[in-house]
Amino acid sequence: MAAPWSDFGITFPLRSRSSALEGRGRQGGQRLAAITRVAMENSPIIRFRIDREIAERAHRMATEMGLELPDVMRMMLTKAVRIGDFSIDQGEDSKVQPPEDRLFEAYEPRYWADAKASLDVETALAVLHHAIADHTSSLDEGLALKVPDPELLERLRNERDEACALLAAFDPTNAESVARILERFTPDSSAGRASEKST
């Protein structure tokens, strides 16, 4: 009989994407795994138990929105800390009404700067893994077509190789490199939108 609860954690190790490392070999996969582990070693894993039905419903909600449930929980907790309020406390409406257009610069830098740097590192790793997996999936779909598009397949391979190279050389202490990765691969960035439109 299944337990009525499920274990969840705020920070989850990135899922293994062996298919995304196609052609890289076992050593390449182990190297990327080691880099990811080092980059995320400063992220504490907070585990807790939750009613299984709630967990399953939350997972479905996140999936319908195209999100991963751990990412949703991280975003909710980060926002609560940023505004200094748990708005769902005891089922009551939040008494804090922060302006929605408040800029990052408006927050106390000494409290937010370190957290933002850590979040940027985690986000950069996540978007690289997502780009590799997404391009691998698109390649598989493109190769399965009766009439493959050689130009599209070549572009997808090049972009996936670029993401793999950036992941292999990832340095969490290099803020400029992290910023370039976010600018290049974040979906809502100019470069990310251009890549999506051409797919």
How would you explain this protein's 3D organization?
This protein is mainly alpha-helical and about 200 residues long. It has one domain. The protein is about 60% helix and about 5% strand. The protein is built from 7 helices and 2 strands, in the order E-H-E-H-H-H-H-H-H. It has a two-stranded antiparallel ribbon. The N and C termini lie far apart (about 45 Å).
Secondary structure topology:
Layout: E1 5-9, H1 25-39, E2 47-51, H2 52-64, H3 69-83, H4 109-144, H5 150-168, H6 175-185, H7 190-197
Antiparallel strand pairs: 1-2
Helix pairs in contact: 4-5, 4-6
Low-confidence stretches are 9-25
Number of strand segments: 2
- Total of helices: 7
Tell me the Rg in angstroms. 19 Å
Estimate nothing, just give the exact number of structural domains: 1
Q: Specify the helix fraction band.
A: 55-70%
Quaternary structure classification: single chain
Query: What is the makeup of the main sheet?
Result: 2 strands, antiparallel
Structural class: mainly alpha
Numbering strands along the chain, what is their spatial order in the largest sheet?
Answer: 1-2
Tell me, briefly, the overall form.
Answer: flat
Residue share in β-strands = 5-15%
Q: What would the average pLDDT be, to the nearest integer? A: 73
Q: Note the run of SSEs as H and E.
A: EHEHHHHHH
